[in-house]
Amino acid sequence: MAFMITTASSITMNSSPYPNYMTSSKFGCIPGAMHEHERIKLKQASSWSLQFKAPMKVNATKVDAIDWSMVDPKKESPNMVSDLRVERMIHDDSIFQEIFCIRLYEVGPDETASIETLMNHLQETTANHMKKSGLMHDGFGFGSEEMSKHNLTWVMAKIQMIVDRYPIWGDIVQMETWKAAHGKNGVCCNLTLHDCKTGEILVRASSYWVMMNTKTRKLSKFPNEVRAKLEQIYVDKPPLIEQDTRTWSKSEEKINEHICKGLKPRWSDLDINQHVNNVKYVGLILESVPKTIIENYEIHSMTLDYYREFTKDNILQSFTSILTNNSDETSNYDIVDCQHLLRFDIDGDNSNIMKGRTRWRLKQGNK
Amino acid sequence: MAFMITTASSITMNSSPYPNYMTSSKFGCIPGAMHEHERIKLKQASSWSLQFKAPMKVNATKVDAIDWSMVDPKKESPNMVSDLRVERMIHDDSIFQEIFCIRLYEVGPDETASIETLMNHLQETTANHMKKSGLMHDGFGFGSEEMSKHNLTWVMAKIQMIVDRYPIWGDIVQMETWKAAHGKNGVCCNLTLHDCKTGEILVRASSYWVMMNTKTRKLSKFPNEVRAKLEQIYVDKPPLIEQDTRTWSKSEEKINEHICKGLKPRWSDLDINQHVNNVKYVGLILESVPKTIIENYEIHSMTLDYYREFTKDNILQSFTSILTNNSDETSNYDIVDCQHLLRFDIDGDNSNIMKGRTRWRLKQGNK
């Protein structure tokens, strides 16, 4: 076969990195569902936005209403970067919206926003939603006052993402997010990214968050007072993207494998939680993706499972296996599937840090 | 001596990385001036803003005027991240202002914006000012239509920066910039960063830009049509920060030197110019700064001279010398001076990529 096709029968159902907390979810993996990477199922935002009467499409009038009086219209040029960012809660605080602009330092050599940029914005919107809901406060690190009492902080356990189109420098985009319970001790954050000019949905994502004790660095149950706050904003809907619960396939592990050893985190990789931020894992995984793929393809969809945290002092190995039956990865496939592994590069400790899958499509111009 | 004190007599006057273009500037180094790192002289923004009647202090009314109608006031919490970003030209297009918010992924373990974040925002504002002045256009990479005809792009040659206070997550800040000629083939971009809430100036910077031919990768003179456009927006004032033209001091090179070899750029370090972005040089320099300094001190001022570009395929060495006469860098000095060198780690090619100086002060809480 040219690309990996996995049927329901081959799916390991209990593959969550945090089985005690995550797999009991009523929104978790659905027995019998197809989990092909190419067919990560979308619960269309539009279908349930109608039910909630929430403005899932960007309201162009609202965007235009942003204080243009500050800008002298005589001086406007057609190529001006119309850059602004506002946020608001809608529908009884269950949906949170944020508008912002893609910046020059967020785009790569091909002039489109990087996958890390999109993940940064997803993370920012998720955090601001929590902040606005009282689940995160200034002065308490990355958590609420109640979480701080128990030395707890938020960490991401899993993310699934589908990118239909990458925005470019100067594009004004709107992130929209809503949260659902994921088992007793997990939160599923659903996010969409729209182009404010066209209304087009660019990115869809579902990420799963749990709590970690900052002293023991172990996962923790949700304190009752935190759960009570969360339940006020939960939307009782399944994840936007159906969970892909496949594990790293050993049978495919040896197909055209690429390894990058001795990877070292930088100071700038550390976040407010004193560890390497989950977004940086993606950059480390990309280090083992062959140049020919990076330069000619772009990530269309991605599933990342986070198992361990690490810091500046750790040295890592990054693995990428290309899931084709052809050893020549430079062939002009329209789609390339990869699986990834990030683990410690320490004598006696090769523990897994992250496992993931990516589907790449040819960039425009390479077709 | 405890810290490096350099007098005017010891300054090498012609130390610009691009001597053909940069040193003929009428705003260049001033003979006889003191160039101590601790006394980088500030041309106070306030002194000449009065002359221009430009609102150098943030106008709180303007900030408040930004479409708060989008946000339901009943839902406002005191800890809401009031996040927005607008831009405008003032004073006949000679001064450009941009308001934005510090995001979670832009702060480090100590919860303040990183030095790279500040440099990213300086770069973004500089680029947007050029874009708005017709000196940079979408579809022509990092340059204008006229530059594109000559295969030219903008590159930064030098930056000097003084940080009075680092903003934190959620802070709304305003960047303000104006440009001056720097010799015939250089532009000096002057920038200040204000806290929108307090009006306090947080950061001052002067950066110097030249043009590079994207085919030959060599520096280029300014085409006449580009110079004509630039001259329309130039402000005939000296740089905000007086140029520090000292070279790497060989006599101090061996004092308490720290080396980090085998540094590899990542895919995410590459920018629209297909090379490692100038902001990423800082992250690579920080890799050779001892942990005890990174954790206990913060950069107060910085001068970086850029000599060469490099890409993902290059391997680098980063050097930091601590300029004290005490070999124990963990001593509780209030101020620590360092000099830095970034160069290729290639057999037969140890060319310098960047030289720099930093002054660090104890973080709050470590005093």
From TrEMBL, chains A, B:
Superkingdom as given in the UniProt entry: Eukaryota
Acyl-ACP thioesterase-like C-terminal domain ranges (all copies): 253-361
Keyword tRNA processing in record: no
InterPro entries: Acyl-ACP_TE_C, Acyl-ACP_thioesterase_NHD, FATA/B, HotDog_dom_sf
Molecular function via GO: acyl carrier activity; fatty acyl-[ACP] hydrolase activity
EC main group: hydrolase
Subcellular locations according to the entry: Plastid, Chloroplast
Keyword Transit peptide on entry: yes
UniProt keyword annotations, A-Z: Chloroplast, Fatty acid biosynthesis, Fatty acid metabolism, Hydrolase, Lipid biosynthesis, Lipid metabolism, Plastid, Transit peptide
GO CC annotations on file: chloroplast
Enzyme Commission no: 3.1.2.-
Organism in which the protein naturally occurs: Lactuca sativa
Protein name (database record): Acyl-[acyl-carrier-protein] hydrolase
